[in-house]
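Bug report

Summary: structure tokens for alpha-amylase differ between web form and batch submission.
Environment: batch mode, default settings.
Steps: 1) Submit the sequence below via batch. 2) Compare with the web form result.

Sequence submitted:
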Amino acid sequence: MGTSTLPDALFGSILYQPITSSRRHHAPIQFFVVKSHSTIYRRRSGGKRVLFADAWLCKPRHVVLSSMDDSTEALTDFLDDGDDNSLGRGKVVGIDDNELLASRKALSDAQARNETIEKERDQLLEKLARSEAKQKEYLSTVMHDKDLAISELEAAKALFNRKLEESVEERFNLESKLVLAKEDAVELAVQVEKFAEIAFQQATSHILEDAQLRVSAAETSAAEAAFQIVEQIRTGSEGAITYVLQQSKDAIEKALAVAESAGDHTTNAMAAFVDNMDQVDEIISVQSQNLKLSNTVNDLESQLLVYRNEIDRLKLELKQARKEAKAYELHANDVEKLLLEFQESSRKAALQQEEEIKSSLERMRKDATEKKKAASKAFKLELGRMKAAIEAAKETTRSQDEAYMRRCEALQRSLRAAEAASKTWRQRAEMAAYLLLRKSSSEEVDEEAIYCVNGGRIDFLMDDDSQKWRLLTDGPRRPTPEWMARRIRSIRPRFPPRKTHVPEVMTSGFKTLDLPKPDEVWSIAQEKLKEGDALVEHVIEKEVIEKKRKALERALQRKTVKWQRTPEETKLESGTGTGREIVFQGFNWESWRRQWYLELANKAADLSRCGITAVWLPPPTESVAPQGYMPSDLYNLNSAYGSLEELRSCIEEMHHQGLLALGDIVLNHRCAHKQSPNGVWNIFGGKLAWGPEAIVCDDPNFRGRGNPSSGDIFHAAPNIDHSQEFVREDIKKWLNWLRNDVGFDGWRLDFVRGFSGGYIKEYIEASNPAFSIGEYWDSLAYEGGNLCYNQDAHRQRIVNWINATVGSSSAFDVTTKGILHSALHNQYWRLIDPQGKPTGVMGWWPSRAVTFLENHDTGSTQGHWPFPRDKLTQGYAYILTHPGTPVIFYDHFYDFGIRDIINELIEARRRAGIHCRSNLKIYHANNDGYVAQIGDSLVMKLGHLNWNPSKEVHLDGTWQKFVDKGPEYQIWLRQ
């Protein structure tokens, strides 16, 4: 397909207008709009162009050249509203364009090859992404196995440590008993010493001999007992126990030494106490005490035998524990070896794959470079031909300028002649006035002189004084014929005539001349800003005051409308609200770092003034992760965002400003507080002290004993089994506590893919929320790295979940978000399905579709799926003017500088009375733009499509433009 060009030697100016056809699989049709003077262009079968150009120049005419697909020849239409006989005075000029068509065809082929290369590159990149994802999956599996092995090793190590601690504790007990035995032996030695002293002082020689014999017997028994104790302890323990026994032996030896010294002392004192025979009874008591001491030594021997048996048993257990520890160490070493081997193999495979991809990309770069060189060469040739045509056009422009100047000179001559004629009439009028005055003063005037001076016209109007004085003052007047006025208007020159720079026009992206609108032009009356104006500060202050006044006006209108709403507009349906909600997500991923409830409470009045009706608050419960999506104790609302009292105060402020407070509720999973005896974290604490029976049995990480899951598994925390009766009853009580005691009005339900929507229906019926939104986030369909046009399967899955709740809850329209990512890049045809409806959930169930562009997961600091930054205003223009319930993200409203734009769109939605069930009719959806009527009072346009309500036959009534953002979007409201 080629583009036809005309040599500009025949035209005054050329305005290039590329107009893209609505057909997808054909290259765009391009048009030249050529301003010329009485020029006809026709195409003949011989490949020649024939031009009929007038020899004289008259009013401007327009020639439209078009080129269709393939080889179809197009006849150029000639649009003219001037004289019909201009062809008779023309001349014929022929131009050959075979080379131009060939170059254009080569250029289009090069562009097609570039597109093919881009598609191949995208496919390779997609394969690379898939391989990286698989590699990450393998790595995560290996790391999971490694973690399991490490956890088993840690458990074995803990068991070994526990047994070792028990053995050490028993050893400590044995040592304490040995210390007690040592103390008993010392006490025995002290008592022997005392008894010996008494015997030394009071016994007779006979009695002293007997006492000495008994003491020696006690010494031998004590020595034998000490020897036996030392032997038993030496065979029963090692190391520290031997040290203790050695100390006890030393103590006993010291006691024996004391006893020997006491015996010597007794021998020395025998002579002094021969006659004293009164202490026989005391000696007998000493003998009885010696018998008791021997019995005590026997008991100690029996206890030492028992301790020796226990020490032998502990040694056997210690040997067995060491064997198990060695086995676990060997197993861990084997696992580490396998892991290293797998990592090495995966690294080699990744390196090989990376080298292959690099080589393929290098080949693609080389091919692209060669094709680009060929395309640039062809483009240079084409550019040379175009430059030659431009030179010819310049010559034609100069000739046109000369013709314009000649016409200007002729017009000036005619103006001078008119001035001379008016001067002549003024002179005649003065002469006539002079003659009339003379006639009134003297009746003897020569009438022929009057006739001669005034050309014989004055006497016809003498009877009417008003006409007479008008004639004398202005001279004779006759109306200008319409054909003469039209001719004068057509040749009226502009000084100097504007010359068009042809290369700039041909490379310009504009289709038409965008002149400033009257309300955009600066004037003193409107006091618009103008650079260098002395009133700039005053105007800025006035604009600020005007913005505040408009905001107050909108707030007063909303307050008035609130009291004037019909029952249908104020009636709340459980889970779906009134249908006129505008939700505001009041946090992002980093909000937990500040005292968020206090900050959000201060913004409640501002949000209410802007038209927001509901605020989505962050997860309120205590959580393992500070963002709140890993809850533990559900009844503990002291989170990273603030305390329970601050949360209640924030909700009260929301209610005071007429806003609904939606709580972010996590029902799919919950983090445990304790480990089970087998070391798994599946014991919950707090008020809801559940056990493994509250966890689904197919959760691979937490060994639940409940029923299988009714949805997808969330692997980071235990998945709750909602089929258990006690679980559902506890959750219902908790939700009612949040509604009645804390003050929440509705729910945003996290990760609803994890369990059946039937349980959501039961919870909504129990808690009766004003509004409910489910997060059913699923992947869209892609083909070759590009988004598929047909996304019916994706939106069907979301609709299936809403059906499972029996329509008691809405759901985020993830389908519409994904489609807008591509549609707003000049692919507006994605916004209409074959049935003429929107392609998201909005097209099938608009009253349950919650539309959004961004949230804390897709945007903020996570950025999992960010919306194109340069298309944010277009995206909000779409969701805020269409059915469904729109959601505004905190960052966009307060941080991105588009707050005034969002407020303007909210005002348009309010004035048009758009709600979640509003009717929608799509008029256009192609590459150039998108046009739709929502309800009865609003029409909106996206893109650079040249359209307004007057061009649509089916739109009746009077429409006024409410928002005009040029090629981004425009909004009209019915008057």
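Above is the batch result. After comparison, the two runs are identical; trailing whitespace caused the diff. The chain has 21 helices and 24 strands. Residues 732 and 763 are 6 Å apart (CA to CA).
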